[in-house]
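Next comes the chain:
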Amino acid sequence: MTGAGAPRGAVRRRTVLGGAAAAGFALAGCDAGGAGAPRVRRKGQRITLTFWSWVPGIDRPVDLWNRRHPEVQVRVEKVSAVNGEQYAKMHAAIKAGNPPDLGQIEFPVIPSFLLDNGLRDLAPLGAARHRGAFLAWQWRQSVFGPGIYAIPQASGPMGLFVRQDLFDRWGVRVPRTWAEYAAAAEAVRRHGAWIETFAPTNGNRFAGLAWQAGAKWFATRGDTWIVHLDDEPTRRVADFWEALVRRGLVKTIPDRRDAWYRDLQTGAISAWVGASWGDALLAGNAPGTKGRWRATPLPQWRPGERASANWGGSTTAVFAAARYPRDALDFALWLNTDPESITLLLKGGYGFPSVTSGYRRAALDADRDFFGGQPYGAVFADAGAHVDTSWQWGPDVDALFQDLGDALTDALADGSSFRSALAKVQRRTVADLRDKGLKAEAGG
């Protein structure tokens, strides 16, 4: 296949993906073709851009944009964010040649879209001029070699949400360490409830827990990816949750589904290891528990530490096939930097802003009444300051998450160890990268 039909600025298969030292790899395959040449909108010309997103309340800032920009209208199409359904739909649309103009894409899966040649390089459009508006480590999530492939929107520093009323009633201490968390799980179970669920298909959360423990799933050596999903910190996390599962101290139902929401409402589940964007999720799906929740830092592996991690983190990306990429970039920048847009996004519960300014700290407490008046944004602000920003995502993480979910689900069904699931997923990940023409090795 040739690259003759590739749009200017599309990802090239020779793009080097890797860290700041450019110790990445050459992508194998062919250029994206058939998208047609990008266009420059004429003065006075009216166009409509499509935007796929799952962010709650995203319609409100988009409506504001549309009122202010009658010539460039944006149409939001909601996509499901459960178990990677949105990405399967996006990849399918890229392959079919009909993706939207813009999409909500999380930090971990940007490299997967580069493998598809699915995203437009925004560097030739001047995106680099805006890097100073964003937190440096989040800006770097979308930078590979000289290319810039998305505009950061929000991160997801992690914490622990607890039903304070139930913990108080049962005399359960809010855990500060994972050992205390296990003790709390046992105490909660004695009262007929569960502390929460271990959702085997939620690879993104599991990655965050491993990240907090000090794991390093991906690294580069020269042009080779080093994959180490079963390193010691990840095994520690797997052992911990497997012990809770085998002792019946946590449920294993999927989170963020109807049954889980019912358990939140009834108190059958009394806590949740979540991320900053979980405030809106809890408030919107468990309204009958208003005033009873509190946010607290993640439990630590060693007393006195303050390690945190990131669950998710989103960008606004422009697809390679976008016909008016400059207008799409203008919208992506406005959406994620305009103070009024950020205020609306915060009210909707989009996460922790990637911008360095343009909002009031108090705005982070959008659901303060739901949390009994707690200024809970401070919990996640502190968590965000203690995220290990050296964590590196590798290519095809959405496939990795699918494999991890399958392997952990199998382990729950057949009684095999979570460690064996990690080893299996590591082998599959290395093989998957090699099948895509990349150099990959298992970490030692």
User: Anything to note?
Assistant: The radius of gyration is 22 Å.
